[in-house]
Write a structure and sequence with these properties.
The complex is a heterodimer. By secondary structure, chain A is mainly alpha-helical. Helices cover about 75% and strands about 0% of the residues of chain A. The chains are: A mainly alpha, B mainly beta.
Chain lengths: ~180, ~425
Amino acid sequence: MAQKRLYDLYAAKMFGVCKMYAKDSDAAQDILQEGYIKVFQNLHTYNGNGPLEAWIRRIIVHTAIDHYRISAAHQFVNIDDCENSEATFLHPKCVIAEEAYRVLDKEDFQKMLHHLPEGYRVALNMFYLEDYTHKEISGMLGISEGTSKSQVSKAKKFLKKIIETVFRKEIFIYEKGRNVEELV
Amino acid sequence: MKREETWKSWYKDMSEQLSGEPPKAAWDNIAKTLSVQKRKTIFRKGVYFTGAAFCFMFFTTFISHNNEQEQAGIGISALQPANKNLQIAAFTIQVKNENETLQPEKNMISATDRGQQQKMNYRGQLSGDNRREKTDYRKSITNPHASLITETPNNLSEISINDEIINAAELYFESIPPIMAKQQPLTISVGADRQSPAGVIPIISGPPTTNPDVSNGAGCPPRYLWGPTTCYLGFSTSVFNNWLLNNNTYNSFNSNSFSQVVFSLGTNVGISAGMNFSEYYALQGEMVFKNTMGQRYKVYEEGHMVENEIQLQYSQINLLFKKKKTQIIGENPVSFRMLAGPYFALLHKNETFISKTSQYNPDVFRNYDAGINFGVEYEINLNEEITLATGIRAALGLVNIYQGEYKTSANINATRNLSIGCNIGLHHNF
């Protein structure tokens, strides 16, 4: 079956994309399913301009954004909430550890991502992974351009703090292998 | 800058590491959904086809009524070219009032009109005490300019609604002159056979007439209620609410949705010109200026609802087919009209406001739109020359007006215009 072959060809990569946007694995699977249904329904509109993979990825990303928009749980986090949240990750003995970036594995990275507020995560992915401009992000999410910039900036700062705090050198040495969520 | 690039590179690398085989259930669910949707598509097309057939029927063979007996007919008609002749096939169902007296069996030949001949047969019979009546209605029209192709095969059925309605269904064929007949130019008339028990049957044949011999001769039904033709000119204006049929609108029905579409009033003003082809049928054209469409919606942003607005301004041409039913109220004839027809619109302004500030204005909307208007309208003749028409009208765009390079979540599916509102017009009759 041609549809199954097409699915098998890109499903693994696209599932990775879904994980970047989704709050958990179940949500990622939902996005993947919905995205591929749209792919098959609109396959006739693919005009051959650009790689098929990029076309599929765009649909998957848009599906993820749709999920984010219609999610009842979705909330834009304001700066006060953000600061309060960050405080829970700070430890008095924390030091900045650049090594944390190098040693972070994909499971830990995924868990870190899931600690990001959903609005931050989506804006961050759109800006750094899909290379959308803030103008485009504002149009797609229905927010102002300033809010888009703010979301990306806060998201990055937020993620950095999680990583650098939790994976400070001492903790990493003694507690490597422990679940990130436990550390958090 | 370098640090930013490094961070971006690291982030991308990490994201690529997340690739992995999805659960097997994912494909199973996709396959199942695609299978269901295929069946739904077939069903939906069937519904559309039935709806289109019904609309066509509704505006061609709607309601018949006369003073002697209340009756209404409804049916389906279709045109098909066959053997150099244009044929009409009509299937009609007729409703009669319980007080209607039985028609005695009649055979009559009407007065001829330009060589045409019409023959009517009525036959009625009682069916026990249940006040049911079966009417067999046969009709044939021959024209000397064409050979008679089809005699009226009859498909009679009986329908009862409560205890008062009896009906006949008729399958009706009629032949008319060849389109290219040299002896007589082709004239197509859509007429009403008012006294026919089969209700209004569109008749395509010969020139229209109001010949009294044909209309009133010894119970003979009138044949073509056509003319006198009159024209009118005037203006019209509308106040309506408009929507963009997109995900934002659909999501508003979900109480958990973060977006909420709110009312967005629009107005337009235009000039109109029309022609009454008969007492019942009219064609009207309208040129509408500054027809404001678009959408207003609220989204949840940073702890509060922010109102956004999309404004689309069109110039629009409407073509409306009207079917009229007239009642005498007081001393004035009041006409109730159903109207439907296509529209074509050109976009000359689009603007998007986020938090009441024009944030971006990409060329994401097509510079044209096309769709259908439909509605109802009351007409009051203020005097012999001036007519006031007021009614309710809806306009539904059939074109996906979104054409942006990237699909926003609001527009990832088709985006179409919709407006519903009140219309008022003033016409001068000539």
